[in-house]
Write a structure and sequence with these properties.
heterodimer; A: Sulfite Oxidase, Chain A, domain 2; 2 domains; 31% helix; B: mainly alpha; Fumarate Reductase Cytochrome B subunit; 9 helices; 4 strands
């Protein structure tokens, strides 16, 4: 008996575990349970914001702590006729349009971005997949750009629209005003002391250091201040959020 | 010497020789079953997340061009939550149930200090970890004898040590290394990631601790089966446990 029981029970356990696992899939498909499952994002956002100073900085590193080679991810090259023309002209005609709920819409060239007060930071890039790479980024703080545009107090989110297309629609991302005015949130046009490469988002990308990599929009063409994310894409605040249900808040 | 303080708590002492004793307090039982579900979800969803980049590194950074210390196998769909590869949904499971795990542990710890479960049942005394005593306990386990020789209602020493290690080391390490992987937490509490020597170290330790937790669960379930699964499961539901009788000295 003592020999047989464990064996049967083990099989029952493994079978039971399998049933439980497929039960998890069925649960996650149920709207009510899905709501609970997706509520963790808001709780984590609330807790992290409560625990953390608005301006708390992520660790910055020394030059000798950088990744020897920084891999690319997501779009490696937008490869649209329009983008390729900008590549050919070395982005001299690229304009970042700053609009939406602002008093003074702006059209900023890469030279304009470089002429603003700069911030350079060696930070760790964390991909949602789990890998990390450390690199140096430089550009004006997003807060400086938004102040120059006279962002209105009714703005609650900043939306970044990109030049790379997914199924014909541009990649986009959004952050709230806490992260938009965070000192380490910059519009980076340089990486590791060189102009941004195509793989890393040339000519300009967002760095929002307290969040995961998919929030760091590359190939930024538009920066819009909005009161609500409704009506933009599928309304979830970003391409991956719309497409497969990634968390809009990617601080964890 | 220990002071004897009378307590109104219906705790498991003094124990009779036979019959049943009230062994598991309500807080212990609730936490046990909440954790049974939570840890199951955390492991399944954790394996999906690991499948996204099944390489582990030491230090601050680590990606495809860097040298991993471990390449883990691809975890099959019958082990993962969700069963199809869906990183977004796996993260929803993992990060929502992480709250249950973290605050569940906190609530259990507070309750177990108040109901004196920690002080009474889990305090490891010097004489218990004396080599001679430990050797005797190992020998008793080898004979499938899981009784505490001094008190039939109490945990035996190896059992106590494994619970202490799980409650006070393994699960806290899981929670802290999990938090250390959060870029926002690294801004809020920079000491967290510094303590473990970097985010990729945190990720590696998170995995090692998870593997140890799985080992604990395997041993735990095996011993429940060997000790008599019906009585053990019943005691974790009702709190009352049938005494196995005293071990002959």
């Amino acid at each position: 008996m003592t020999i047989i029981t464990p064996r049967i029970t083990r099989r029952a356990l493994v079978g039971g575990a399998g049933l439980l696992l497929s039960g998890c899939d069925r649960l996650a498909a149920q709207p009510g349970f899905r709501k609970i499952l997706f509520s963790g994002e808001k709780i984590n956002l609330g807790l992290q914001r409560a625990l953390s100073d608005r301006g708390a900085l992520v660790p910055e590193f020394r030059a000798d702590q950088m990744s020897p080679r920084f891999r690319t991810n997501g779009t490696r090259n937008p490869d649209t006729p329009d983008y390729n023309a900008h590549v050919a002209s070395r982005f001299v005609d690229w304009r970042v349009q700053v609009g939406g709920l602002v008093d003074r819409p702006l059209r900023l060239s890469i030279r304009d971005l470089g002429a603003m007060p700069q911030r350079a930071q060696i930070t760790r890039h964390d991909c949602v997949e789990g890998w990390s790479a450390i690199g140096k980024w430089q550009g004006p703080m997003l807060g400086t750009v938004l102040k120059a545009a006279g962002v209105r107090s009714t703005a609650r989110y900043i939306v970044f629209t990109c030049a790379d297309l997914y199924d014909g629609a541009p990649y986009y991302e959004s952050i709230d005003m806490v992260d938009a005015f965070h000192p380490q949130t910059i519009l980076a046009w340089a990486m590791n002391d060189q102009r941004l490469s195509i793989g890393h988002g040339a000519p300009v990308r967002l760095r929002v250091e307290r969040q995961l990599g998919y929030k760091h929009a590359k190939y930024v063409a538009r920066v819009d201040a909005v009161a609500s994310l409704d009506g933009i894409g599928a309304g979830q605040g970003g391409y991956w959020e719309d497409a497969i249900g990634y968390d809009w808040y990617a601080g964890i | 010497m220990e002071e004897v303080v009378p307590s109104p708590d219906p705790g498991p002492s003094p124990a009779p020789e036979h019959g049943t004793v009230y062994r598991h307090r309500l807080a212990t039982r609730i936490w046990h079953w909440v954790n049974a579900v939570t840890v199951f979800v955390m492991i399944g969803s954790g394996l999906t997340i690991l499948n996204a980049h099944p390489h582990l590194y030491w230090g601050q950074y680590g990606a495809n061009y860097d040298r991993p210390w471990l390449d883990t196998p691809h975890w099959p769909s019958w082990l993962t939550i969700p069963s199809s590869y869906n990183l977004a949904l796996a993260r929803r499971w993992h990060l929502t149930f992480a709250l249950v795990l973290g605050f569940g542990l906190l609530a259990f710890m507070i309750a177990s200090l108040i109901n004196r479960h920690f002080q009474r049942d889990l305090r490891v005394r010097a004489k218990e970890v004396a080599p001679q005593h430990l050797a005797a306990d190992v020998a008793a386990h080898a004979r499938f004898d899981f009784r505490n020789p001094d008190d039939p209602a109490a945990y035996n020493t190896l059992q106590k040590l494994s619970y202490v290690a799980t409650i006070f080391v393994l699960i806290p390490v899981m929670i802290l290394t999990g938090l250390a992987m959060s870029p926002a937490m690294d801004a809020a509490w920079p000491w967290l990631v510094e303590m473990v020597g970097g985010r990729q170290s945190a990720r590696s330790i998170h995995f090692i601790a998870a593997a140890l937790l799985v080992a604990f669960i395997v041993v735990h379930l095996t011993l429940v089966i060997l000790a008599g699964p019906v009585g053990e499961v019943r005691s974790m539901i009702t709190g009352r446990w049938r005494l196995p009788g005293r071990r002959e000295p």
